[in-house]
């Protein structure tokens, strides 16, 4: 079997751009993959075009060797754009391998550990009472882990974010939320790396111990020493890793216990080939995977297979609404993962178990989109 084409599809779907890729072969078997570098999809598409030049004619069954070739083929190795492209192609190669062998992808990874993959849902309502009501609706539907959305507690309408104002109000609200929701339900919050070490420590110290079950991405991940300092200032478990793009980048976070949940994104980290290496490494350090998954159905399908294939798994991020509305349509993705009361059933069909209507894709255009450029009240730029 030989690769005959690699077709990138950066398109607007589900309320955001989705960076898909189709890998075709001379035996008529194709695979779908997805990249996770949101808002810079065209840069990823450019990297895929470079990889296409030498991947055509190669054997798609050699996914591990092709990963090494893509990673090491340029002098400037790695980086999120390149690993985003590698991730998408690697996922597509695993889809091809599963279809060629007639087995689900998780069978290529050692078989399944579970019959369903637990997920976590995120609230999205615009005020405190509505957000708490939405969280309770998720719990009533069977979700055992809920991430509360702090963003609505800031002045996001005018794209102003003041950390000290946010942490004071959010900490007070989280104490109320913890009292209102069953202690058996896991509660977390994502600060999207918008805080400093001092601000993150102050935020955690404003709440009684046990209020939060995890704090996601409180500060940026470029400087592990900053997380070392923060780790000494709070006992709240951290969930870190959605920005990380290689096993090498993960080294201090795993080896030094700087994170308690690994938020790797299979569409950024390097696909199945790299994700499975990190999963085993995390297992040796008693760290569970908690994959980042705010993207499209191909990413979700790949993440479900990863969650099925590893023993150390907690919850998969899920793009769902409390009323059960679907963000994607049947025309574009006629077969895709769906949640059932807070979890994803493990698929049994060959490959990823997701189908994409390529003809329908051609009717959707890429849209230039920027995440909000947040500023503080003094006009200075801060993190989105």
Description:
The mean pLDDT is 94. The chain is α/β, with parallel strands linked by helices and 384 residues long. The strands form 2 sheets. Strands 4, 5, 6, 7, 8, 9, 10, 11 and 12 form a 9-stranded mixed beta sheet that branches. Helices cover 37% and strands 15% of the residues.
| Structural shape | globular
Q: What proportion of the residues is helical, as a percent range?
A: 25-40%
Structural class: alpha/beta
Low-confidence stretches: none
Number of helices: 13
Percent of residues in β-strands: 15-25%
Number of strands: 12
The largest β sheet comes out as: 9 strands, mixed
Number of domains: 2
| H-E order | EEEHHHHEHEHEHEHEHEHHEHEEH
CATH architecture of the largest domain: Alpha-Beta Barrel
Mean pLDDT: 94
CATH topology of the largest domain: TIM Barrel
Radius of gyration: 20 Å
- Please state the oligomeric state of the protein chains shown: single chain
By CATH, the superfamily of the largest domain comes out as Enolase-like C-terminal domain
Specify the CATH class of the largest domain: Alpha Beta
**Span of the ends, CA to CA:** 44 Å
Which characteristics define this entry?
globular, 384 residues, 2 domains, TIM Barrel, 13 helices, single chain, alpha/beta, three-stranded antiparallel sheet, Enolase-like, domain 1, nine-stranded mixed sheet
